[in-house]
Specification:
It is a single chain. The chain has 137 residues and is mainly alpha-helical. The chain is 74% helix and 0% strand. Helix 1 (3-47) packs antiparallel against helix 2 and helix 1 (3-47) runs parallel beside helix 4 (85-111). The longest helix is centred in the N-terminal third of the chain and has 45 residues, at 3-47. The protein is flat and about 70 Å long.
Length: 137
């Protein structure tokens, strides 16, 4: 494997992790902002104001873009032109580690959903297992 291929593998894995992390962290923020905008829209309708601007803001929330990945460190490695065997092996090891961690996290979330579940959802599911239901607010 060449230095260039090792760099591409590392960049691809970093990009995947970066996108996945952004999506998971941004999801809750979007839900909070959407709820706030819907509340403000409701208040505007009650006051007789135009609520179209709130609809536009709600639509824009879903279109959040992933920020660009900072690859300055990797570019610095390329600039140094240290393409010896140890550097190439290190880049491959880092890319493999990042890919393995990403896969581990995905499998953990898939087969153990309780880790990422909110407390309210845990209570609701536990109550459902014993034949009870949680009262609605």
């Amino acid at each position: 494997m060449t230095f260039k291929q090792a760099y591409k593998d590392l960049h691809r894995e970093l990009r995947r992790v970066h996108i996945r992390t952004f999506e998971s962290r941004n999801k809750k923020d979007i839900e909070k902002q959407r709820a706030l905008l819907q509340y403000e829209k409701l208040q505007a309708v009650r006051k007789g104001e135009d609520a179209a601007k709130y609809d536009e803001q709600i639509k824009r929330l879903a279109q959040a873009k992933v920020p660009k990945l900072d690859t300055s460190l990797a570019k610095a490695l390329i600039a140094e032109q240290q393409a010896n065997k140890k550097t190439i092996e290190h880049l491959r090891n880092v890319a493999t580690f990042i890919g393995s961690q990403r896969e581990y996290t995905e499998l953990l979330e898939r087969y153990n959903p309780g880790l990422t579940m909110e407390q309210e959802e845990k209570v609701r599911r536990t109550a459902g297992k014993v034949g009870l239901s949680v009262p609605e607010k």
